[in-house]
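ESCALATION

Customer reports they have been waiting on this structure for their group meeting. Please prioritize. Original submission:
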Amino acid sequence: MTDHAVTVEPTAWPEAARRSGTIRRALTNLIRFARRKPFGAVGAVIILALLVMAVFAEWIAPYSYDQQIPGARLRPPGREFLLGTDNVSRDIWSRIVYGARVSVTVSFATVFLGNVLAAAVGITSGYFRGRYDIAVQRVVDAWQSFPYLVIILSLLAVMGPGMLNVILSLSILVAAAASRVIRSATLSVVENQYIEAARALGAGHPRIMLRHILPNVMATIVVITTIGLGGIILTESALSFLGYGVPPPHPSWGSMLSGSGRTYMYLAPWMAVWPGVAISLVVFAFNMLGDALRDVLDPRLRGARGGAAPH
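Update from on-call: job pushed to the front of the queue and completed.
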C-alpha cells in the first residue's frame, strides 16, 4: 500500500487568511459605522433597496410599467394591488419600481459626468492658481449667479427632451457647484511638503495632480457625490413634473405626480402619495448617508466630534 503525498501550495493558506482577514475587517467597519451613524446606515439600506429595484425591476414588478390591467381602474391599495392602480388601470407599484431605474440612471450618470468635470476644473484651478484660477472662478461665479432651474430649462429647450439631454444639462449644473468645493480641498493639499518633494524629484504637473492631489481630495468627492445624488433625483423629479424630464412612456416619479396624480388627487390620493413618498425616502437616504460619510471621512469633523464629547 502506497501513501500518496498531498502537495499544498505554500501561498494558499496565507492568501486565504488574508482574504478572510479583509472580509472580517470590512464587516467590523460596517458594524462600527452602523453603531456610530445609525441614520447613515438606514440611508445605506434604503439606497441598496433602490439599486436592487432598479437592476431587477423585471423580476420585482408584477406587471410592466405600461401594462393596462382589464377591470382594474382606480383600484385602492390592497392585497391584489399593493399600492393601487391609476386612471388607466396600471399597477402603481410596478411603475414605482421601474421609476427607480429612471432615477438611478439619471442620478448616477449625472453625478459621474458632473464630478469628472468638476474634478478637472477644481484641481487644475487650485493647483495652477494665478490668472488661470481667477479666470476660471469668475466663469463659475457667473454660471452660479443664474437660477439653476432657468439654466436647465433653457438647455432642455435648446436640446429637446430626453434622458441623455437631461443628464447632460444636469451634469453641467453639478460641475459648477462641485468644482468650488474640490478647489478648496486642492488648495489645502497643494501646501503639503510632499507636493514640493514631487516637484523636486522632477514629477510633471499631470503626474502630481493625478497621483498626489486626486487621491487626497477623493474623500471630498465621495461626500459631494453621495449628497448630490439625492439633489439630482429631486431635480429630475421636478423637471418631469414640469414636463421637461424623461418623456413617456418611461415612468418617472415626477411625471407620476404631475399628470394623473395631480388630476385624481382627491378621487384617488394614492396616485400622488406613493410617488411623493418614494422621492422623499430616497432623498432622505442620500442626505443621511452623505452626512454620515462626511463625518467619518473628514478628520477635522472627527476631531471636533471627539472633543465635544462630555467628560
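Sent to customer with the following note: The domain at 28-298 is CATH 1.10.3720.10 (MetI-like fold).
Escalation resolved.
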